[in-house]
Amino acid sequence: MKAKEEMVFIAILIGLALAPLFLSEFRTNLLGKFVAYAILAIGLDLIWGYTGILSLGHGVYFGLGGYAMAMYLKLEAANGKLPDFMSWSGLEVLPWFWQPFANGAAAMVLAILIPTGIALVIGYLTFKNRIQGVYFSILSQALALIFVVLFVGQQAYTGGTNGLTNYKSIMGLPLANDTTKLVLYYVAVGLLGLTYYLCRVLVNRRIGKILIAIRDGENRVRFSGYNPAAYKIFVYCLSAAIAGVAGAVFVPQVGIISPAEMGIVPSIEMIIWVAIGGRGTLVGAVIGAILVNALKSGVSESFPAVWSYFIGLAFVAVVLFMPAGIVGLARKLARRLRLPGSKDVKAGEAA
Amino acid sequence: MTNSVWQMLKKRLAAALAVTLTASVVLTGCSSSQPANQAASPASETIKVGILHSLSGTMAISEVSVKDAELMAIEEINAAGGLLGKKIEPVIEDGASNWTTFAEKAKKLLQQDKVATVFGCWTSASRKAVLPVFEENKGLLWYPVQYEGMESSPNIFYTGAAPNQQIVPAVEWLLQNKGKKMFLLGSDYVFPRTANKIIKEQLKAMGGELIAEEYTPLGHTDYSTIINKIKASKPDVVFNTLNGDSNVAFFKQLKDAGITAKDLTTCSVSVAEEEVRGIGAANMEGHLVSWNYYQTTDTPENKEFVKNYKAKYGADRVTDDPIEAAYIAVYLWAEAVKKAGTTDIEQVKEAAKGIEFKAPEGLVKIEGENQHIWKPVRIGEVTADGLIKEIWSTGQTVRPDPYLKTYDWAKGLSN
Amino acid sequence: METYILQLFNGISVSSIYILAALGLAITFGLMKVINMAHGEFIMIGAYATYVMQNIFLHYVDKSLFGYYFVAAIPVAFLVAGAMGFLLEGAVIKHLYGRPLDSILATWGISLVLQQLARSIFGAPNVDVQSPGWLEGALVISQGLQFPYKRLFIIVLVIACIIGVFVFLYKSKYGIQIRAVMQNRAMAASLGINTRLVDAYTFAVGSGIAGIAGCALTLLGSIGSTVGTYYIVDTFMVVVLGGVGTLLGTIAGGLVIGTANTTFEFFTNTSLGKVLVFTLVILFLQWRPKGLFTINSRSLD
């Protein structure tokens, strides 16, 4: 089963790599954004699908990664001067914690380290204290709220509600340039492949089995002599790091990051990508993230109201009728088609 | 053996292709009609313009009626024969109250639909989000809402008030007529913070006194503590830059605390007729606001405008400043296109300089230097029927000065 | 001095709203272990029910009686929200018992649908609910010390609701059945209790109380399709802080968060106040994960 899913993923990757040949510049850019979301979804699947930790505040880590990148882009655009929003918020010198971000490489490392560090603190406290299940979900939601209020309230340091926007170049390459855009797109696709591969290797090893065991019966794992907290902290940090990468990939392509991306609503939307694609499969997370966002972009363009109904009902339908998501459905279909004798033609048709 | 493996492989490949295909079909699905349109557009009968507002989410409250006004202006122009012999065709996009979505949709309008211009945005955040998109793609945006100033993009025309056409004159009038001690209350985002920064400088220069400066998150609902702070600090005036829902909570709770317009002067700059409806006229009667236009503004153009707007959208609808500013934005653009004889953005911008238009608020003029417009300033009082009565006005139009360069005390504000 | 007394009153007043909004949650979450993310939307339903009642009184009932629409709106809000809760339980929630994480997702989806439904029916702009005349004004102790009638009324309403819930749960036949089912479902069923029905009306009562909260909120702020979203995280924090499964805990949680919020807000500012309160709650829960009031249980997971 896993091998097949790996092949599906490789096919997706090839499809993504070829996509710029067929899509307009605008759609390619949009697809690049979805790829960033897909990276995040893999990390989310790791903690929710495999380990059973439902985080309703993962937007925070995505946002922190995004802000780290955005701070660098903003400083590069400011070209040695104070970023515009700081001067209109009354600052005169660059705050000390902004200074490391002037260096692109440092900013990219921090885009991973900051989310990981915060996840380490949160994860250490909550999982050590055995806060589990819905309690963790509710706390993670409060976490998202805290960060949003904090980022909105500290306009001089974070750009407030506006967030950070109006970048000019990345590593000296102008962002408006078509080649830069294409490079950014392929970097995103490459990172998606890398993230998937990393997580695939991880879940195929023994640690993957322990994570699933924690999901299905944490106490039994504990009684078997393992320390579930350590595994949970590790996987939570890893998923935060992945979210940070996704945020950093997202920002230069989209051109803006704002507290709205860190809030509870986007955080829960991220869960639905994984749920629709199929939790606990990694490839499902990728499919879900790309498909749901493509649909959203398409449907909401013409019918904003319909989108709300659609996504709302999709939540209910997935939970009630197809808990294994699209991947689960495909598996079921494949199994059913394999049972009778001549089925290959049918399979082609069904596809 | 090898045969079955190959067949399985083929099956998997087909499945995988199907997945990627669905994704890309969905992606291209909506755009599939675009190439045809694009190919047809140079010779076709229509000029495409973009309309970009939040039709869903928290900002839909305000932006839907602004969109309605823009559509009405487009219809009127089309009914009168169109523009350059062609009809104007609006392409409507939903920004969904999310700044990232605004940027994405702006890109779509400019790159896919290749619109001649865009009318859109409400919040400063959404404008700041689309600004780089318009500059990068050499697009043109008409922004219809009063804002905090300190900006003048070559790709944006601002038809709402600059700070010197709303906030600064209001503060000056309040200091002269209502008292020196001012309490600043606003929602926590860029417009109130920047507005208050301006006001603080102005208070220093004009002998006013800053009592306190308070911000609440957007959507905040409990103002009992803030009202208690107001009570304890006894200001002469509360200068209110709260936005959206929060105004409802603030004014309802202010009244409950036994404070009416007789006891305390408040002056709001983000509350217009549309918002008064949501707050309830009874809760706001007698409170002051500052704008450039009211539904009651007495000009022949306005009588016509209000009549048409109500005929089109319902007698219970009201017009207000941003609605009017959005409406005239379409006309100003059309005038500029007529003068330029083309929709080419550089030529339209050049032609727009100095264009005059008999707007419902009075005769307005585009200031070429900063692409804002000359507007009259009016201070008004909310009446029992939920409308606003003008109690003071500058009479003449005021020159837009987004960076407040003509005010000595504002030297330190714009760098 | 007056300022501080008033501030204390504000703290209690804000707490009372938290308690009212969380009381229904204490039943659906605390007793039934269902994470109902659509709880805020039941608050919204109650608020819109009040709006509809106001319009009915405005158009179909004698003007002199208009002031009483609010009295009529309270039971109506309870019944409408309760009925919606009953439907929801039957259609969706009943499949999700024992799957708390899934219930979060499904009910979140429902909340999106309900919000859009409200927009489709009542329009995107917020609606104005006029407060009845007899709730206007304030109890004047001195010039600087006035207690608004609306806030006093809400406090009384909350106390009434608390007493009502206690009597219902601990004195009535239904309440005894509910507690029996929640404590030991199999045993209760074997004693002849229709556990399906008990589930359904427990959920309905929890939702109905949210409806009353919505009714009360119309006195204070604006009513729109997203009104519930402003309260949902706060109310969950109230229940978790208090301790899941105890009504007393919910009341204590509401009082702590409400007064802490207003106090921090008074001494710092609104944003920082909120951040401080939530951070402290999260830290407190690290120390006592089960909240202020704990129910000792030997069951594992």
TrEMBL record, chain B:
It comes from the Bacteria. The keyword Membrane does not apply. InterPro entries: ABC_urea-bd_UrtA (IPR017777), Leu_Ile_Val-bd (IPR000709), Peripla_BP_I (IPR028082). This is Aliphatic amidase expression-regulating protein. Transmembrane segments: none annotated. One of its GO terms (biological process) is amino acid transport. Residues 1-28 form the signal peptide. The lineage of its organism: Bacteria, Bacillati, Bacillota, Negativicutes, Selenomonadales. SUPFAM superfamilies: Periplasmic binding protein-like I (SSF53822). Keywords: Signal.
From TrEMBL, chain C:
One of its GO terms (molecular function) is transmembrane transporter activity. It is a multi-pass membrane protein. One of its GO terms (biological process) is amino acid transport. Its main location: membrane. The keyword Nucleus does not apply. It comes from the Bacteria. GO terms for cellular component: plasma membrane. The chain crosses the membrane at residues 12-35, 42-61, 67-88, 152-170, 200-223, 235-260, 266-285. Keywords: Amino-acid transport, Cell membrane, Membrane, Transmembrane, Transmembrane helix, Transport. Pfam families: BPD_transp_2 (PF02653). It is found in: Cell membrane. The keyword Transmembrane helix applies. NCBIfam families: urea_trans_UrtB. Belongs to the binding-protein-dependent transport system permease family. LivHM subfamily. PANTHER family: ABC TRANSPORTER PERMEASE PROTEIN (PTHR11795:SF447), BRANCHED-CHAIN AMINO ACID TRANSPORT SYSTEM PERMEASE PROTEIN LIVH (PTHR11795). This is High-affinity branched-chain amino acid transport system permease protein LivH. The gene is livH_4.
